[in-house]
Fold this sequence. Notes:
Elements: E1 10-14, H1 21-30, E2 34-38, H2 42-52, E3 56-58, H3 66-80, E4 85-88, H4 99-106, H5 113-141, E5 144-149, H6 177-196, E6 201-208, H7 217-225, H8 239-246, E7 257-260
Parallel strand pairs: 1-2, 1-4, 2-3, 4-5, 5-6, 6-7
Helix pairs in contact: 1-2, 1-8, 3-5, 5-6
Amino acid sequence: MKLFDLSGKTAIVTGAAGLLGRHHCRALAEAGALVVATDSDLAACAAVAEELGKSGLAIAADVTDPQSLAALAEAALARTGRIDVLVNNAAINDMFENPAAALEQSRFENYPLDLWRRSLDVNVTGVFLCSQIIGAEMARAKRGSIVNLGSTYGVAAPDQSLYLDPEGRQRFFKSPVYPATKGAVLSFTRFLAAYWGAVGVRVNALSPGGVENGQDDFFVREYSRRTPLGRMAVATDFMGALVFLASDASVYVTGMNLLVDGGYTIW
């Protein structure tokens, strides 16, 4: 089990205050890492770091701002002296503010350009900038693991029938931008794995399946029915996979996409 030990290592997790982010932080801390919890809101970062006790450090940053990320890397190095793991978790998953307008707004034909650009900026450019600025420190040290959060929707198209209610009415459509951005993240993962392989930095993707988080009962039921394990994920289901990719347990793994989806994408 020493292969999974992250003692003495520093990990940065973006989107740390989100549904999965705080569990990513907890998983790495429990494996022994000092975890830098990063989000755009300092108070939210501090709350996550407080949960981790001595293993947590809160540093706010905007993943779309190069200067903010440079300050993050500088502060992390000043406090810990090293960066060993980067988890690119920050992302936008469309939530429509007005449920009454969600159906028409989410149609591909009507999907707003500003929402497309906003998600591209965070989900793709954010991963690029974090890797370029923080990952470069790891490349200079000739060690480290970058884990990019993908999605089942990065490898399989959304089944829009999942969003039909029991009366057969389409509540909304899964928008085009989330699958597009997550597909880009997977391609970028392969690029960076090849680019930095020679200097000892591994780059992999972790792609979660759908996480149960207060969705309508009909959606949970239909999604679960289409999954071999018969349920949606819970937020803790990805902790072991993350520690595997972050640690020396995966020392000969790079450029891969680890799907943790209950088997959803095998059909």
